[in-house]
Design goal:
83% helix
């Protein structure tokens, strides 16, 4: 692998370690007994429950998948066989991630509105079904 790829992987790993291990541990030590903390972890937790955060996350996920697909399909430094296999793999992984994202987002939103788990699962399945239906419609329109 190239040096920038290794450096980027290292930096992302370090950011995850700091974000998930060091900061919450430091917050627990510094919190006075009996008081509710309003640190970065609870602020991020509150923000993650808002529809705006879900919308921004969806847009960022879609843009990242699009950029990755363009890089893979463009064949920047990859062989022809590896490029096509990587593109297919990226498309499958992207579809699974997007479907899971839509299902979980719809499920959690329905649960937060007071619906039972079975009702929320039905809404999540319905949203994923609409996504599949839209993909089929786009494929049929593109083929014609």
């Amino acid at each position: 692998m190239s040096q920038p790829t290794l450096l980027a992987g290292f930096l992302v790993g370090m950011a995850l370690i700091v974000g998930f291990a060091v900061l919450p541990a430091r917050q627990r030590r510094s919190a006075p007994a009996g008081r509710d903390t309003t640190g970065i972890a609870s602020a991020l937790g509150r923000q993650a429950r808002t529809p705006a955060a879900w919308s921004v996350g969806f847009v960022l996920l879609t843009v990242a998948a699009g950029v990755a697909t363009v890089l893979v399909v463009g064949g920047f430094g990859t062989g022809s066989g590896l490029g096509s296999a990587s593109a297919a793999l990226l498309a499958v992984i992207g579809a699974v991630v997007l479907g899971g994202y839509v299902f979980v987002g719809t499920f959690l939103t329905a649960r937060s509105r007071g619906l039972y788990a079975a009702q929320a699962a039905a809404f999540g399945s319905w949203a994923v079904g609409l996504l599949v239906l839209a993909a089929v419609a786009v494929a049929l329109i593109g083929a014609g």
